[in-house]
Amino acid sequence: MIPAQIFDQITDKCTEGLALALACDDDGAIMELQWCNTAFTRITGYTYDDIIGRRGTILIGSSMEQGDHLIIIEKLMNWEHFSVKVLNNRKNGDQYWQKMSWVPLSDAATGNRWWLCSLMELEDRPRETARRRPTPVAESDQGLLADYVEKIGRLEKENARLHELAKIVAKESNEDPLTGLSNRRHFEVELKSWISDLQQGGPDFAVFYIDLDRFKSVNDTLGHDAGDRLLISVASMLRRLTNDRDLVARLGGDEFIVLRPLGDSALNISGLADAIVQEMHAPYSFEGKSTFCSASVGVAIATSKMDVPEQVVADADMALYHAKSQGKGRWSFFTEEMHAEAVATKRLVSDLLIACEKHEFVPYFQPLIDAETGQIVSAEVLVRWVHPRLGLLPPSAFLETAANMGILKRIDEITFAALPDVLASFDSAGVDLPRLSINISAGRLADPTFIHDIKSSGMDPQRLTIEILESVYLERIGDVVQWTLGELRALGVTIALDDFGTGHASVQGLLKIKPAVLKIDRQFIQPIVQDETARALVASIIGIGKSLGMSIVAEGVETESHAQFASAMGCDCLQGFHFGKPMCADDLQARLVETRGEFWHPRTELAGSRRVNRNC
Question: pTM (2 decimals)?
Answer without folding.
Answer: 0.57
